[in-house]
Amino acid sequence: LTKSLYERFYPLTSTGNQRFVANFQGDSFNTNIFNFRNVIGSSGTVTVTDEIDGGLAITTDSTTGSVMQIDMNDRRAFDPRASKFIFVTKRVGTSLQVLFGLTGDITSSLPNAISVANDTSLTYYSCRVIASNTGGFTNSDVAIDTDWHVHKGVCGTSDYNQYLDGILKITVTSNIPTVKCQPHVTNYARSSGGQESRIRYCEVYNT
Amino acid sequence: MTFDSFYEIFTNPTSVRKNHFWEDFTGSNLHSRWNVQTDSSSTAILQDAEDDGVKFTTSSGNNDVVWISFANKRQYNPAGSAFHVIYKPNHTSLIGYNLGLFSNDGDPSVGANNNNAYFVTQNLSTAKSRFACGGGSITYTDGTTTVGTDWVYNSAEVSSSSATMSGVSGLEVTQTSNFPTSKLQPKISFRTADFASKSGHLRYFEVYNT
Hints:
Helix content of chain A: under 10%
Number of helices of chain B: 1
Structural class of chain A: mainly beta
Number of helices of chain A: 1
Oligomer: heterodimer
Distance between the termini of chain A: 24 Å
Strand content of chain B: over 45%
């Protein structure tokens, strides 16, 4: 039995790397850790839900093309070539691209990022790996849905592996970004009406 | 044994994790995730003392109370959840200290606001822990943990067919009917039943859906 949480992750002979966990619990969204921004649009919302296992609701502005995002306001402590991330999320909106994972930028184009994608314009869960605006989407063989799933990304020096519910689904070996990154969830509304996604767990750590 | 992630300490990576939250009550101020309410000028303040957690201190009016909750953000399952608490009353009489999961975040000195809940409290006449659990009304059952002015550990769990309370010696109470029926949130309240200021401490609270 170990005496410390530290020893659950690291031998005492090693120096642990940056690690972050968010449970999205409480009376309101904690803006001391995550920043939320209407990247495009003005009335998107972030709300802790009053629902069993409901997590945090992120909803875009009501106009087509609006983008609502949570991020760390460019406090980028994570290495896209030596880190892992775990998100428990679901898509609610019926015309929505949800991207979540690591990004080096907070702009709407996310030019340097490794993200899981649940996009209603695609048939399957996918990943978006992009460096300096070069790269794109790679599909898995799992059809998108609106259920809760656990998504894990393993970012290495020359490859990125993406797991869905514990099973490896995608490997990408090109366009891995090199810039320091932060966690993000980005909703892009493909139609009007306010498009929502949920998140109830986020863990990111350098390896 | 070491783990790759927090996630994998508690959940198989092939399973989707349910809500799980814990609070150590350490820092410069009570975390903003807690909504602090009081019917007077009672307080909930983190302490400058070893292992002392947060201290609830009431004003000196009879039934003055302070409580912390999630402001009706109720993400916990009345038919499948559990919690653990470490707490300490500073008095052995004329107090009410309730710790657990509640549907209603209203003033806990109003009895109806404690319905649809399960929580740990005390039988002050016997100095024992007491389990409280129910839907439209609450069933109270005494436990065996001695509650004086020392630190106490208790846990409780509900399923669709039973509710239990445990302490450091193991299972203390099993209840087989009258369970909460509405979604729940953490709520901890401390009340004086006297015309005098009273206080108690809390240094750990953990809750999760099962």
